[in-house]
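[Structure tokenization] protein backbone as discrete codes
[Encoding] learned vocabulary of local backbone shapes
[Protein] chain in single-letter code, fold in tokens
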Amino acid sequence: MKTNTLSVCLLGAMVAAASQSFGQQPPPPPSTGMIPGEPPDILSPGWYIGGLFHGNFPEDTTMKQFGGPANATVRFDPGAGFSARGGYRFCEWFALEGEIGFEGNSISSISGASVDAAYYQVPYMANAVITIPTRSLIIPYGGVGAGGVTSILDINQITIGTTTAFGSDATTTFAWQAFGGFDFMINNRLSVGVMYNYRFVDGPKWDSSSFPIEFDNIHNHSVAARVNYHF
């Protein structure tokens, strides 16, 4: 009798365990902070920081002075740079941020000149960012900004006719920019994306010495990969 009772208990335990196992649901996927019909957590109010790594493509410009009046076309090689951004999101569609960066391009040629020089830019901008809350993992955005750019001219040698210049100098001028792109949400705090940026820089003039060099306005284009972290 005891043996029959023990067998029934073991059989009942096995059936209960099997039914519990078959009744279990698979674990839910990791949360991305998405609720159907609601904006992702990454667009909620709060502070954020980000970094960008980009290719940099200034348009040709004109050299207006080279120790005196000049009229030579300046061409740049493609370059690269990086920048850091950080700001505060006030709501799902609007944020304000600051930006600082560094970019560099070799000067490929100056018409009528022998040249070995590079042009560097250090932008520092205040930006307003508009985001479209799509309720999806892909988030489009755009914005505008204004500030200044420190332009650094690093000359190993520029020779026009019998005149040769060398050395380095820096000057700061007004700049404004417009940008746009897409972010892809990794989770409720982290996103990665791509961005196009156009920046206008008032023509830099390097005149700290008695030999002034001046460029016309700089029209700068860049394409960047970026990452953002929302606190």
